[in-house]
Amino acid sequence: MQVSRFTVGLCGVIVLSLAVLVGVGTAQSTARKGQPTLTIATVNNPDMIVMQALSSKFTSKYGIKVKYVTLPENTLRQKVTSDVATGGGQFDIATVGTYDVPIWAKNKWLVSLQPYFGKLSSAAAQSYDLNDVLPKVRLGLSYNNSLYAVPFYGESSMTYYNKKLFAGAGLKMPLHPTWDQIQSFAAKLNKSSSNQYGICLRALPGWGEFGAPLTTVINTFGGQWFNTKWEPQLTSAPFEAAVNFYVNLIRKYGEPGATSSGFTECETAMAQGKTAMWVDATVAAGQLTDPSKSQVAKDIGFAYAPTKVTPLGSHWLWAWSLAIEASSKNKDAAFKFLTWATSKDYLKLVAEKNGWAAVPPGTRVSTYKNPNYKKAAGAFASIVLNSMLTADPTHSTLHKAPYVGVQFVGIPEFQNIGTLVTQNLAGAVAGNTSVSSALSLSQQQVTRIMKQAGYLK
Amino acid sequence: MSAVTPRVVVPSRPRVRPGAVGLNLLTYAVAFLVFFPVLWTLLTAFKKEADAAATPPKFFFQATLSNFSTVFDAGYFTYFKNTVILAGGSTVLALVLGLPAAYSLAFNPSKHTPKVLSWVLSTKMLPAVGALIPLVVIYKRVGLFDTRLGMILLYAAFNLPLVIWMMRSFFADLPKEILEASIVDGAGFFRIMTRIVLPLTAPGLAATALLSLIFSWNEFLLAVNLTAANSGTLPVFISGFQTSEGLFFAKMSAASTLAVAPVILAGWLAQRSLVRGLTFGAVK
Amino acid sequence: MATPATQVDAGRWAFLRSQRMASIALLLPALAYLALMTQAPFVLTLWYGFHRWILTSPELGHAWIGLENFRYELTQDPIFRTAIKNTLEITASIVGGSLVIGLGLALLLNRTFPLRGVARSLMIAPFFVMPTVNAVVQKNLFLNPIFGLVNWFWTTLGFHRVDWLAVHPKFSIIAMAVWQWAPFMMLILLAGLQGISEEVREAARIDGAGPVTEFRRITLPLLGPYVELAVLLGMIYILQLFGEIFVATQGGPGTETTTIPYYVYQTISQANDVGTSSAQGVLAIVFSSIIAALLLRLLTRTFRKGLTA
């Protein structure tokens, strides 16, 4: 009968809800005592994926479990910022970049690693060899002369080009090209009707996307974001010249869909042979030369990042690093993980698993001295190393600047400023507005932000 | 023969019109077109990353299951379990609270009823983004941050207005005589609900429950901010595949397929009830 | 001897009074729960709106600044005004577009034909997909100007490559959202169509009405209440549209697709400004309430008119 069937159904629902609530209840049971569990906030970049896969080795060595929360970069930054700014407590280790570390250290959201390094036994300190870690990277991860994070992998920027396309047009790429040379190459190699483009450059709005290569171009044209009095320089001659150059280069000889093109989109275009040149992060080198990921693996050539008026700030410096949150209850365990994941032994571990070309780049000088690595990475290793050794976050503009950072400005407001300005400029790339009007609007907005934040009176 | 004519309008089947073959083909084409993006995602899940981004797009390719194994390795089942508990638990809670409320508003309306209904709807006007930090602060203070219980409570509050509005309409459409008879008989709320009201509005109940389930299942922004390692849901899991340094379309398609499949299956199964449920006058 | 009628009356009175108490008791838990869960965050949001709080600059403190945030947003912030305009445009277009397409789909399905269940299942599927997933798939696999399917198809037809998300950002967002919400509208409208009794249509046909006249004079008016329900429910959700914009255009290019929810998110995640984003959130409530109130008044008027059975 219908009624009894319904009563049965109702009982089923009640049972189900009880089961659900029980499930909820048991899930909240506290972790077993004695075995600390580290919670790490991380991004989903290829090197991090390898780290997650190898964490079991860490657990079996130290008996410490590791849990990961993986999110895209901007979401992760927003979430971790909300967390630490409201008292923290969610993560022991945060994956942060050279932009975040000095700011978070100043806000006391991270713990200084100096005392922990100081407590290491001399044998442990020697085997870790902190001095082997690239000096400029360590500089970028410090605040008040104290180290707050260790780099997991580091990168600079360089020029990639398609040797076959160049040879076909009778062109030769110099090892240290200038932007003017790049422009003439792009003009000759651009065949948009055949879905082939001269160059791919990021124009995806974002301080870390469009903003990064754009800032290096601004630097090398002799411009800067702020003068020593913190006045915004967006309408100054070199700044405007640099932006005009970049925007026009894309519009004339660059990829369509530039305002949606970040690292991944341009990398895909390069790997599929759709673009002749690409100036971007050095980490792409390994992927572009991997035949399973790239259709032009054998044809990739490498050169230094282009320059114009000065080599200062022409190639950037970035390191995804591991830092311990001030609110962590497992700081000692966290430090163990930090040093494990950035040790020479870890690099060997990755090499055993995936080969030397897959080893996290840009952290240690010894990696680049290793003959196995040199053989596997070969063509680009020296360019990467030299770029990272010469990218100085404290000295990256032609004229003196009051800020640190090569491809960003190391103030908390830059996250907003950089994204706002690149959003306006993306409108120029898309052809909706002119560069000069985008820049004057940006100058107004940035001036207001700087006044509100107390930099300007 | 009964002298009582049924008050409930039974949906009648439209006759087949002659010469409808063309219209049939059009319908199939449209259905395929509408479904196509879902199908394409499913296909992409089986491609290698290089194939996924190929131009011209590859319709024929060598299939691989490696994306699915990557997804499972990345902890799919934990997130799946969390999502089921969250979506299911919040729907049950919303129903437990909302059904009596809908009963009251439908069968005992007063001059306050429109105001109450408006207020209930107004609770959905605050964009979740605006209350992000307040919610983080409050949840941390009461210890509900990154807990399944906390998320269940929150999602139930989101779905309660939907339950109240929809079920009230379904209840109000029931023929009054049946109810009045049982009220005079002295039946109480519980008996009326279980013996009469719910059986008659079962399709509407299924429709409301399914909608509530879908909205909880797919909720992204609050899930990202209010969960961490313990209660993450599938939307958070999927977004984790996005990376700014590397190709991820195939892996993400695999994760999305696995996240969407259970909901689509549930929807298809409940579909008939859904249509019939909305038929029984969510409208006066 | 008391007549049975009076006895029933007295009983009914007492019963009704206790009914009223009982009905309040039934209503109270839901209202109390809703009030607690939604008003507490709202009050705190309002509180933050009166302060200045930048997450990444704790040294600037938590100063009380009264109505300053609200004043700035309403009178000086050009982006907020653009966001209001964009929200209205985009919401109206999505609701309208999905309504029209949903109606078309419902009309197609309102017949008997082989594999009808399959066709209906396929047409409902888009509603179940996660908005963020939908946006990632559409952005990368379909709308990408170099690799996307749409451009491959478009250029095969002989047109030039189009950078959809840069040149037609609003249209792209609207198209994505319409694809998702049309099935929702379709379900409601299909239910309405199937409620139109066969006799009425038969009578119309006998009177010599062609399909177009039948649609205009009979189908549409009878569908009216269903259309209005779909619009009300849909609008409440679509006003908060976020996932698509977040993934596909990030509010751009420029501020082309910056809507109020997205602008609030930008303020909190990019400028790390709790005070301003809270003020924006509160203003968003005011804005949505006005729209909903107007819509509700329109709907209840039609609801009360009802249909003569």
Kindly describe this structure.
The complex is a heterotrimer of chains A (457), B (284) and C (309). By secondary structure, chain A is of the alpha/beta class. Chain A contains 20 helices and eleven strands. Chain A has a five-stranded mixed sheet. A four-stranded mixed sheet of chain A has the order 8-9-7-10, sandwiched between helices. In chain A, helix 10 packs across helix 11 (237-253). Chain B is mostly helical and 284 residues long. Chain B has a single domain, classed as MetI-like (MetI-like fold), CATH 1.10.3720. Chain B has 13 helices and no strands. Chain B is globular. Chain C is mainly alpha-helical. Chain C is 75% helix and 0% strand. Chain C has helices at residues 4-49, 68-76, 78-109, 116-124, 131-142, 149-156, 164-167, 169-194, 198-206, 211-238, 243-248, 260-269, 274-305. In chain C, helix 1 (4-49) packs antiparallel against helix 13 (274-305), helix 10 runs antiparallel to helix 13 and helix 12 packs antiparallel against helix 13. The longest helix of chain C has 46 residues, at 4-49. Chain C is globular, with a radius of gyration of 26 Å. The model of chain C is unreliable at 305-309 (pLDDT under 50). At the B-C interface, helix 1, helix 4, helix 5, helix 6 and helix 7 of B face helix 1, helix 3, helix 4, helix 5 and helix 8 of C.
What secondary-structure arrangement, pairings included, does this model have?
The complex is a heterotrimer of chains A (457), B (284) and C (309).
Chain A lengths: L1 H26 L9 E6 L3 H17 L2 E6 L2 H13 L7 E4 L3 H7 L7 H6 L2 H7 L6 H6 L1 E2 L2 E2 L1 E7 L1 E6 H6 L10 H11 L7 E4 L10 H10 L16 H17 L9 H9 L3 E7 L2 H5 L11 E5 L13 E7 L6 H11 L2 H11 L10 H5 L1 H7 L3 H10 L23 H16 L5 H18 L5
Parallel strand pairs in A: 1-2, 1-3, 8-9
Antiparallel strand pairs in A: 3-11, 4-5, 6-11, 7-9, 7-10
Chain B lengths: L20 H24 L4 H4 L13 H8 L2 H32 L5 H10 L9 H10 L6 H25 L3 H9 L4 H12 L1 H16 L3 H6 L7 H6 L9 H31 L5
Chain C lengths: L3 H46 L18 H9 L1 H32 L6 H9 L6 H12 L6 H8 L7 H4 L1 H26 L3 H9 L4 H28 L4 H6 L11 H10 L4 H32 L4
